[in-house]
Amino acid sequence: MTNFVDATHLDGDDGRYTANLHPDWEVWGPNGGYLSAIALRAAGKVAPTGHRPAAYSGQYLSSPVSEAVIVEAEVVKPGRSAALTNIRLTQNARTVVQAQVWTTSREAGPQRLDIEPPKVPAPGGLRPFESYMAAEPHPFWSHMEGRPVQFFADDEVGPQYAAAECWYRIKDFQPTADEFLNAGRMLLLIDTLPWPTFHRAHTERPVSFIAPSLDLSVWFHQPIGDADWLLAHSYAPVANTGLIHGGARIWSEDMRLLASGGSQLLVVDAR
Hints:
This protein is mostly beta strands. 14% of the residues lie in helices and 37% in strands.
């Protein structure tokens, strides 16, 4: 099993890199959040010294296979306190992901939080997913350790609202001094969770369709630091005319709001 650090590793320099997509990070193909984590890590390679990620916006333009991709990163708006980088992932001359990343070195400013932190047990007081269910069919989930606040089996009526709270950590990963690598974990969660959150909110689980992400937008509210367990409050409140919208907020164990974001999902016939 390829760990997160190695799976997002970039070879190269001066804004042009290669990355190897690993098959054990697939859901319906290489996971979108995984691709975005590679793009974010590329932004960190060219960001001004002392910068951390401030915002990520990415579009998924084609579905790659688990092979090598070319990753290009260009700072298009340099700045001492804020800079913007364009990133492009290509495979076989097709653009897979195009993304924009704002970075910043700013630290001083007002502090305010009008969102009440979730009142949930610590991860150590909750049961892991594997105590409720058999192994997930997609290899991506083998990298994740999850402890749901509330669990609904496939034969149970799900929650009235498409919302969920669950603690997650990536196995075999230790937080590092690289804020771009650390923050990539939040892209994984915010991209991936809207679909299962929508899925489990239905009495009859959808079987004839899936809904891959068209895009992903994430705003980083403060440095993630050495946070290991991450609490994801995910939601998918809107579905209509072939589209599903969802997102998530990510909290640390000491209840700092680290990031929030969401995506638009396109309904696709799974047959």
